[in-house]
Each structure stands twice: as structure tokens, then as C-alpha cells.
Amino acid sequence: MSSRIVVVIVAAQIAFAAATYSYDSAGRLIKIDYGAALGAVVYTYDPSGHLIGRQQIQPTMTVNVSSVTSSTANGTYAPGATISIQVTFTGAVNISGVPQLALNSGGTANYTSGTGTATLTFGYTVAAGQNSAKLDYTSTGALTLNGGTINDASGNASNLTLASPGAAGSLSASKNIVIATVNPAGAPSVVSLAPAVSGGSNQLLTVTYSAPGGYATLGVVNVLINTFLDGRQGCYIAFVPSGGGAGTLYLIDDAGDAGGPYSGMMLPGKGVVQNSQCGVSGSGSSVSGSGNNLTLTLNMIFAPTFAGNKVIYAAARDTAQSNSGWQTMGVHGVPPLPSTFPNPVGMSPSSGSGLTQTVTFTYQDQSNATNLQTVWALINTAIDGRAACYVAYYRPGHQLYLYPDNGDGSQATSIVIVLTGNNTISNSQCTISAQGSNVQTIGNILTVTLPITFKTAFAGFKGVWLAAQTLGGQVSPWQALGAEVVPGQ
Known about the structure:
Blueprint: E1 2-5, E2 19-23, E3 29-33, E4 40-45, E5 51-57, E6 65-70, E7 75-77, E8 82-96, E9 100-102, E10 108-113, E11 117-125, E12 143-144, E13 149-152, H1 171-174, E14 177-179, E15 189-194, E16 197-199, E17 202-210, E18 218-226, E19 235-243, E20 246-252, E21 262-267, E22 272-274, E23 278-290, E24 293-302, E25 308-318, E26 327-334, E27 343-348, E28 351-353, E29 356-364, E30 372-380, E31 389-394, E32 399-402, E33 416-418, E34 424-426, E35 430-433, E36 438-442, E37 445-454, E38 460-470, E39 479-486
């Protein structure tokens, strides 16, 4: 029979313990069990009942986690960086599967090596959106089996309990690793393009970028020249700075895949990189950095097959992966320019800045400007009538329509004026006044001059697209012909 008795045991290595005493049917003591942590004593008897043996069973020693650290140097790490984390046990352990360690950055470290030893290595690759002022695991239970095992040499499961985050033995107690995928100083920005409007087979373009943490925090800056914001069959450039006056320039291939293949060259340099749309010559191209600003000058060469009015977009990303987003900076006309009719010709001035401007838009018919029925001007970051300063001039009625914020042309009749007197029309992006406006037809040319006042809520870099329709219903494609910078105040 067996009974559990809680008694005080005095022994060489056990001061006080709770034990279970077991007896056989004759009342002889056959086992004293002190528990897995302290072991047991087993007694054996001969058929006559004499004690003939006493066996000491050693306690089961559970393997525990003793510390967590990292072989990766202290510092700040951005997406794509790999952090190596070491978890040390009090004895050798054997691993099956891929155990995991949950981290306070929002990421997870996966087991990579160390089975058969007392130290396991976990790998953590930083992903976008993960941040930690001081990298550590999430809790005392952050080490999980994930369907695998962590056992000692005898096959017993190890104790996976960790020290409390921040306490002695934790990752943050031994290392100072920062995960920063959002720059606390703020996102980088695109400052300017010069010239904002240009044309020709060759052109020097200068783009200035800024980063609140200094130009050295910029990881890559981009320029994309195309009809739309599309890297395919475009002139798509990435520049990776390696200092204030140097770096590597990449021209993305015709497929527009930023992952490559692509052509590259160092700046300063004298090489040429090119795809089917354009090339960049190292001679005449340059880069410089000062304070927060990085200025990139590109000596562009455009292929005749890339002809047409193109939009110039720019963007910047810093080493913490904060991104400016694509900005509509200006336009460039690659010859030969469109010659079909009706044909939007241009705007004057071709670029501007300020809340109040008077702009002249020019359109052309094949034979006579009186053949033009409706002409349009769209000012926005893209060819999108929503949240835009989008107008239509109906020549037979001498009427100007301003599209509503939703860009619905069927509702444009609710915002219409005859271009006489002191009439004004407004939406959330701009106000247009009849006073100071002017419409002229000279031969096959129609010009529409409009005083425009932009709203501060419409702030930012904008492109200007024009289109025209004849009385016979022929409609031109939209043409990118100007640029505006609307101030925020």
C-alpha cells in the first residue's frame, strides 16, 4: 500500500522536505520519494524480509534559461537588417522544429542553430513598421516551441521561462539595440525641381531633397519621368548616396522592376547608363550635400521613341524607411511633340508658385480656333478630377465650368459663370474670377486667361494637364504642359 505523509526529514543534503513514503503489503518501507527536484531512495528486501539493498535515485535536474543576449553590435537598425540573438540554458539542449522568440518590436526571432549545446541562436530580420527604443523579448513566456521541442540530453522538456524584460539576464539588460523603421525626426521631402518645365532631347535636371535628420540619413532618392506614375517603359532613376558628393546611380530597366536588372554607375563618373527611353550621362551629372539637403543634377538624354509631354516625379526615402511619397514636380517635352488636332499647346507662365496667379492656357485647332468647342485645364497631382482645380471653358456660350470636389462632370453645371463682370466660382481647391479673365481666338489658336486663387488646403506640388474638343467631337489626349507649387500658407 502507499500513503502520503508530510514529515520533516533530516539528511545530509536535505534540510526540510515533503516526502511520499511507500510500503509493501508486509508494512516494509520500500521508497521515500522527495520529488523530481530532490530525488528518491528505494529499498529492496529478500524473501525473508531482510533489507538487502538501498538505491539512491538522483533528482531530475530541469534545464532552465540562464540569459538572453545578442552578438549583433549595439546601434540602430532599419528594415532588412538581421539581428542575431543568443539564448543560453543551464545545460545542453536538443532542438527539433523552429522555436520562436517574440520581440517587443513586433517581430519574431526564429531558431537557426545551436542544437546539442547550451546556447541557441535565433535570427530576426527587421521588417517595415517594426520599432523598439530598446530591443527585448515581449514577456517571460516569449520563448515558444512553435510545434518543435527544446529538450535536455535525457529527453526531458526544458523550462522556457525567461527573466522579466529589462531584468538581469534579459536581452535589453545586456544590449542596446534600437529598431527604427520610422524616423523620429520626420519623413524626408522633395524640395524642388529646376527647371520645373523643360523640353528637348537633352536636359540638365536638378532635384533637391531634404531630410530632417540631415542629408546623410537619406537612403535612396528617385526620379521617374513618364506619361503617368508608372515605372514601366519609363525613365526611372534611383540614386543611393554614399556621401555628400558621391553615390551610385541606377537606371531601372524597361520593365520598371525596381528589383532589377538595371544599369548602374558611380557619381562622380563619366559613364552612361541607358534604357529604351532615356540615358543619364555621368559627365555633367553631380551630387552634393549640405545640412539637410541633397542636390542631384542629372544630365539627361531622351530617345525619340519616348516622344511626348512627360511628367517628372520625385521621391525620397531615408535609412529608417520613412518615405516622402511620389511628388509631381514638373513636366518635360520630349521631341517630336504631338502634332495631331485638336492640340493643347501650353500655358504661360509654364510654371508658378503662390496662392494667386493669372495663367493663360493655349489650344490649337487644325484650321480655325472657332472650330474648338470645349477646352479643359486640370491642376492636380495626377490626371484625376477629384479634389482638383478642374475647369472647362465652353467657347460657344463663353461659359466657364468648375468641376466639384468629386470631379463629377455631370455636376459641373452647378458651378458655372459667364466670363464677364465680377463673377467668381469656387470649390475646395481654388477660386476663379471673371474679372481679369480673357479669351482670344487668333487664326487657329485659342487662349483662355484665368485669374486663379488656390486654397491653402490644396498645398503641394501640382501638374497642369490640358485637353480640347472640337465641334465635331474630336477630343485630344490629356497633355502635361505646366507645373504649380501651391503654398500651404
